[in-house]
Amino acid sequence: xxxxxxxxxxxxxxxxxxxxxxxxxxxxxxxxxxxxxxxxxxxxxxxxxxxxxxxxxxxxxxxxxxxxxxxxxxxxxxxxxxxxxxxxxxxxxxxxxxxxxxxxxxxxxxxxxxxxxxxxxxxxxxxxxxxxxxxxxxxxxxxxxxxxxxxxxxxxx
Length: 157
Description:
The protein is mostly beta strands. Helices cover 13% and strands 36% of the residues. The protein has a single domain (4-23, 34-156), classed as Sandwich (Immunoglobulin-like), CATH 2.60.40.
């Protein structure tokens, strides 16, 4: 895709500031063996605690320049942007996880348009996550820009 995702503004702060409180930790299973308990106690005493998970929302804010690649419309069906996809790229590009999509909406003219979208409540492991946004073309090819071109690291509490 030839358009350009200009920036993910405030994305890092958005996750940390707007994230819902993590879900309370799960109680250990009653059927946990003493060997598993010993290993867990040993990890905790050595400072190797397991990362906790919780449900959070991500709010992305970015601008897209439609001067090079227009938005898809009734008149434009090829070589256009149909939607934006938000990915967790923490495991690498080849193992990216699609978090949610953002519709292009109505774009009256070619130029810059700002987007701000909050995704659904999703389970995230605490720690750093690399979040990226890609522009996707229409069916059937659904060509997509590289989400690594518009990315930022966020900290999940």
